[in-house]
Specification:
This protein is of the alpha+beta class and about 230 residues long. Among the domains are: about 80 residues, OB fold (Dihydrolipoamide Acetyltransferase, E2P) (Beta Barrel), CATH 2.40.50.100; about 80 residues, Orthogonal Bundle (Helix Hairpins). About 40% of the residues lie in helices and about 20% in strands. A 4-stranded antiparallel β-sheet has the order 2-9-7-4, with no helix packed on it. Helix 2 runs antiparallel to helix 3.
């Protein structure tokens, strides 16, 4: 038993000696490549809120002032060319147009009288009863009457147009994006009443923070998602 025990001890010592004589091999040195990874390189994306706007937008108002009695246009409504957007009380404008037409009738009567008077004196001159000076005076009277008639007609057209201006109509098709006057309100000439976004091209307007502007370039792919239609 003692001899067997001695052999085991010697064998263990030899094994330990053999291990101590053979050092472990060094680990190989591996080369690596360093990269600076940014958020964009990982495929990340950023979302920004924006608005879709018409490229052309008009603020429409009346050419004359008055009291607003009707405004069928509402925000979000689609309108066609010539559609009524708002209307003023046109009674005073209609009275003005009627008065102007009365002035035209009076001026036309004066012109006709002057023309008839000239013809009568021209006939008398042929018979030798009036002088050439009388004819010249009648001709001057006729020219003045014709000028007065032309002026009255022009004024009548202006008054007639003003009566028509009591109706605000869409000059093109589009969508009402704002109203700036209510029924019963007195508005002046040129005061905006309705804002109309024209049909046609649309622009997407997005607010981008200043520190992100440099990351955006022409040709960069982007997608648009609408929250509502």
């Amino acid at each position: 038993m003692k001899t067997r025990h001695f052999v085991l001890i010697v064998t263990s010592s030899l094994a330990m000696a053999a291990c101590s004589d053979s050092p472990p091999p060094p680990e190989p040195i591996r080369s690596v490549k360093l990269l600076t990874v940014q958020a964009d390189a990982l495929g990340a994306h950023t979302e920004y809120a924006g608005d879709v706007r018409a490229r052309l937008e008009s603020r429409l108002g009346f050419r004359v002032g008055g009291k607003l009695v009707e405004r069928p246009a509402e925000v979000g409504q689609r309108v066609q060319t010539g559609q009524l957007l708002a209307r003023l009380d046109a009674r005073d404008l209609a009275l003005g147009s009627q008065a102007a037409q009365a002035q035209v009738s009076a001026a036309r009567t004066q012109r006709d009288l002057a023309a008839a008077d000239l013809k009568r004196f021209a006939d008398l001159q042929k018979q030798g009863f009036v002088s050439g000076a009388e004819i010249e005076r009648r001709e001057a009277t006729l020219r003045a009457a014709e000028a007065s008639l032309q002026q009255a007609q022009a004024q009548g057209e202006v008054q007639g147009n003003q009566a028509a201006y009591a109706r605000l109509q869409a000059e093109t098709g589009g969508v009402v994006v704002g109203v700036e006057a209510e029924v019963g309100q007195v508005v002046g000439a040129g005061t905006p009443v309705v804002r109309l976004a024209h049909d046609g091209p649309r622009d997407v307007v997005i607010a981008v923070p200043e520190d992100r502007v440099a990351l955006i370039s022409k040709g960069l792919e982007a997608s648009v998602r609408f929250w509502a239609t």
